[in-house]
Amino acid sequence: MRKILLTIDALNINAATIDFACYIARLTRSKLTGVFLENILYEEVEDNAYVSAGSTKGLSYNQRQAIAEQNILFFKEACEKRSVQASIHRDRGFPINEIVEESRFADLLIIEPSVSFKKKLEGSPSGFVKSVLAEAECPVIIAPESFDGVHDIVFAYDGSKSAVFAMKQFTYLFPELSDKKVTLLEVDKHSEFTVREKPKIIEWLKSHYADMHIEMLTGTVEEELFKHLIEKKDLIVVMGAFGRNAVSTFFKESRATLIMRATNLPIFITHH
Amino acid sequence: MKKIAFVCDGGNFPNGAFEFLKMLNNTEPVSVRGIFFEPVDFQQLVSVSYIPVASPYVKLKEEERALVKKSKQDFARRCESAHINYSIDDREQEWVAEVFAKETRFADIAVMSEELFCSDFSTSQPNVLMQEALRMAECPVVLVPENFKLLDRILVAYDGKKESMFALKQFCYVLPQLVDKPVELVYVKKEENEEIPDIDLLKEYSRIHFGSLGITKLHFNAHKYFSSWTEDKKNGMLVSGSYSRSTVSNFLKSSFATQVVHDHKMPVFIAHKN
Asked: Do domains B2-144 and B153-272 have the same CATH topology?
């Protein structure tokens, strides 16, 4: 049993993300804590040109509270229907501070890539999601838009210790997936994946997974990763990132961004 | 199956760490890799190095290798007798922190002696090399006293900071067979009130993971009295976080866990991010 958080914008709830989070909660026989975030402290200059149809701008405090209450009810009912025990944390303040504090006392945090507390539409992943990835004190899963299940696991391995750290954390959190097909995908031809290390990582993986495979990507990493994952379904991608700066570099390099935008796969990321 | 790095230097075979290993293997089979280093005794090396002929140095190195060979043989014999799945690192080498770091990268836990680790260099633990090992480790490390026999309870040093929660989580992940033991979370601060940082979130997390939980605030100077307080906690293990790689030495200098390590009172589980 784990403590799993689902990050929810109290005013914009996403049913598909709840569905994914319930799957993960059921898989690990965990309670799902919906963290309803509301940004009540900052005022942003509104930009009418880029506001979505479902925008909550211009609503009074009471109207916003009514929407939040409705969404909390929706979350509770959705969990109940999927036989998942739910609890609610309602955090009002600076969303990033709230979620980082919550993550210190959690095993896993699930978030949709586009969740944002800005009124202007952002890309995916949003600035808020990037901040969460950089500062969260537990691993994060970026939820896909739609989802059928996890049959395969792909460990994206670039030879770094943070990639190994991510593999370990994923393995500890999901012992229920130890019978799934696991692929160690070497994604960096310049990696320090030396002759001496290769047997070690294989040995470690074999001690945790029964069905283990290795594949090596050659050529441009981003392109090859994209080609490799574009048509894949029902798998989860596990990646590491090292510290705050590396998370931003990680996204600039666009590996995770590309996978997120083009493949609709869940991505497990943790930084060491 | 968890992979465990069993660390030994020279002839300082860690009997307590091996008992700890047997205890783990009895609850859930483990796979152990023995990592053996030649003893670190600079004083002896320096003295023979001054002699203008090679033979004393060569002889000393041969004796050291013989000690390591014997430790490896003991390890293999004991693993076979305890039905523990094992392998032995075949390198003959002196203590190199980077080698240790790489071994721990591909292990779930490392175990070593709380008393004997590199004691040829210094018997006052944590000595400089133990501090280096803890700083470089890429998996949690369990330091085990030589008289270790039983584990009946877990003490968790909580300070409200992310480092102590990181250690607590890693403990739950890598030693799930121990989470059913009685767990006592201890917050130590010399102040009058009963406040504990983020107590509600801490309780919520802990109740999910532990069967039997107590939370205690101790109102004394941790550095002076914590080790004495643990004397009543027979057969316990202390779970303690530490700061990042760059400041783990500071942690070891100032933390109350240091005194427990120094006194070899109980096993100490230490985990930190690199």
From this structure: yes
Q: Does domain B2-144 have CATH number 3.90.1150.10?
A: no
pLDDT in tens, B29-70: 999 999 998 876 655 556 656 666 667 667 777 777 888 899
Residue of B nearest to A202 (CA): B106
pLDDT of residue A51: 40
- Classified as helix, coil or strand, B187 is strand
Dist CA A155 CA A181 (whole Å): 11
Q: Report the distance separating Cα B201 and Cα B203, nearest Å.
A: 5
Does A53 score more than 50 pLDDT?
no
∠ CA A181-A133-B204, rounded to 5°? 85
CATH of domain B153-272: 3.40.50.620
- The residue extents of the domains of chain B are 2-144, 153-272
Residue A58: which residues within 8 A CB-CB, separation 6 or more?
none
Q: Which residues of B45-56 are buried (b: 16+ CB within 10 A; e: fewer)?
A: eeebeeeeeeee
Residues A242, A248: Cα–Cα separation, whole Å: 10
| Residues 6+ positions from A54 with CB-CB distance below 8 Å | A12
Which pLDDT belongs to residue A196?
64
Q: For residue A26, what are its two tokens?
A: 């059921």
ipTM, 2 dp:
0.89
Do B3 and A197 lie within an 8 Å CB cutoff? no
pLDDT of residue A84: 96
For B215, the token pair is 């939370």
Domains annotated for chain A, with CATH where assigned, are: 3-142 (3.40.50.620), 152-270 (3.40.50.620)
Q: Cα separation of A152 and A66, whole Å? A: 41
Report whether A157 contacts A170 (CB < 8 A): no
Write out the two tokens for B93. Answer: 């080498």
Question: For the segment A12-51, what is each residue's pLDDT rounded down to a tens digit?
Answer: 899 999 999 999 999 999 999 999 988 765 444 444 433 4
A 61-120 residues inside an 8 A Cβ radius of B: 101-102, 104-107
Query: CB of A179 within 8 Å of any CB in chain B?
Result: no
Q: What is the largest CA-CA distance in chain B?
A: 68
Residues of chain B numbered 38-77 and touching chain A (CB < 8 Å): none
Question: Chain A to chain B, count of Cβ pairs less than 8 Å apart?
Answer: 62
First to last CA, chain A: 23
The helix (run of H) or strand (run of E) holding residue A214 is strand A211-216
pLDDT number for residue A229: 82
pLDDT of A89 strictly over 70: yes
Tally of CB atoms within 10 A around A264: 15
> How confident is the model at residue A33, as a pLDDT?
95
User: Helix, strand or coil for residue A243?
Assistant: helix
At A165, list the tokens: 């750290």
Whether residue A191 lies within 8 A of chain B, CB to CB, comes out as: no
Average pLDDT over residues B197-216: 93
Encoded tokens for B146: 């030589």
